[in-house]
Design goal:
By secondary structure, the chain is an all-alpha fold. The chain folds into 2 domains: about 10-90; about 90-130, no CATH class. Helices cover about 70% and strands about 0% of the residues. α2 (about 40-65) runs antiparallel to α3. The radius of gyration is 20 Å and the shape is elongated. Keywords: Membrane, Transmembrane, Transmembrane helix.
Length: about 140
């Protein structure tokens, strides 16, 4: 019968903390990448960057045999992809199925339904990136 080992528990605890640190790091990475995403093409390029860099870093960590640190790139990839989607503000790819099935992020689903709503979302994202005024479609004038 195996006995409780404090050293193994400590290593497991450090591994979980590294995963959480990776998630915090990924939140910042995803947020920064989402600022430059205007259309779906930009979104998928940023998504691909996250995956490729994350896999390369994960392979490097495993090659160095630092398994305790493996949680950092995994947590960073997971949270960066999620934050990228949420900051992009539109249901794209597999997220569209996820949002419809679980009935969440209804405004993200609506934003991606028609060409006009997608174009409007792109204009808003472009104005936020360039620090210009958000285009208005409702005009109110005093007469």
């Amino acid at each position: 019968m195996p006995t409780f080992n404090f050293a193994s528990f400590g290593v497991a605890l450090i591994a979980v903390l590294m995963l959480l640190f990776g998630m915090v790091l990924g939140t910042k990475i995803g947020s920064e990448l989402a600022k430059n995403c205007i259309n779906h093409k930009d979104y998928w390029i940023a998504h691909l960057k996250i995956l490729v860099i994350g896999v390369v870093i994960s392979a490097f960590v495993c090659w160095l045999n630092l398994i305790v640190l493996a949680g950092i790139p995994i947590g960073a990839m997971a949270s960066a992809i999620t934050v990228l989607k949420m900051d992009f503000g539109e249901s794209v790819g597999a997220w569209k199925f996820h949002d419809k099935f679980f009935r969440v992020n209804k405004d993200h689903v609506q934003r991606g339904k028609t060409k006009q709503s997608r174009r409007r979302a792109e204009e808003v994202r472009r104005s936020l990136r360039d620090n210009t005024d958000v285009p208005e479609y409702i005009s109110v004038s005093d007469k």
